[in-house]
Amino acid sequence: MYRSADLYNWEDLGLIAGPDLNNPDGNLFPEKYLDRPHILRCDATGKYVM
Question: Cα separation of 16 and 26, whole Å?
């Protein structure tokens, strides 16, 4: 995960969803090459969801 206040300088916040090495059919298996996950904030709860 990365964050930026100005879209020029980025801070690396680390891995938020690790690979699933036990499920070759899953989206998080290393060879699947899925798109990056999107994080959204729920206004009603204040929680973030992926």
Answer: 17
